[in-house]
Each structure stands twice: as structure tokens, then as C-alpha cells.
């Protein structure tokens, strides 16, 4: 199971990112636990300087803007 965290304030882009990750994971049949971190100190300590940020299995893979479907597929298949 992939552990995915979306870092951000809970804004529209952050919500869209979470929904897109869940949708792509479902379509690919990949089990993913998608969590959210909204605390500014936790976001900065994770090394995310622009939101939404995404980490997969503890590694930050994206920061700033909604990720592409292709990028999400790559994270989930990797």
C-alpha cells in the first residue's frame, strides 16, 4: 500500500490533488492511503515550500500546483 500525503492549507488545489490521486489509484487498482497535512510547521519541516505538495512513502515528489495525471500514475506504479 502506498502512503501518500498531500501538504497544503486545505485549499481548492489541495482538495483537487487529493481527489485526483484517489481517482487514479482506484483506476489503476493500487491501494493508497491518502492523508493530508495542513499545519504550516509540518509542511515546512517536510521540505515543501509551495503547495500543494505530495509525498509518496515518505519522499516528497511534488510541490506547487495540481500534479498531472501522468505524474500521479508514475508515483503509483513506482
Give a summary of the structure in a few sentences.
The chain has 78 residues and is α+β, with helices and mostly antiparallel strands.
Distance between the termini: 12 Å
Number of helices: 3
Mean pLDDT: 97
Which spans of ≥5 residues are poorly predicted at pLDDT below 50?
none
- Kindly identify the CATH topology: Glutaredoxin
Task: Please tell me the CATH architecture by its name.
Answer: 3-Layer(aba) Sandwich
What structural class do helix, strand and pairing data support? Answer: alpha+beta
Overview of this protein structure:
By secondary structure, the chain is an alpha+beta fold. The chain has one domain: 3-Layer(aba) Sandwich (Glutaredoxin), CATH 3.40.30.10. Helix content is 41%, strand content 27%. The chain has a four-stranded mixed sheet with strand order 2-1-3-4.
List the helices and strands and how they pair.
Elements: E1 2-7, H1 12-28, E2 32-37, H2 40-45, E3 53-56, E4 59-63, H3 69-77
Parallel strand pairs: 1-2
Antiparallel strand pairs: 1-3, 3-4
Name its key features.
78 residues; alpha+beta; Glutaredoxin; 4-stranded mixed β-sheet; 4 strands; 27% strand; globular
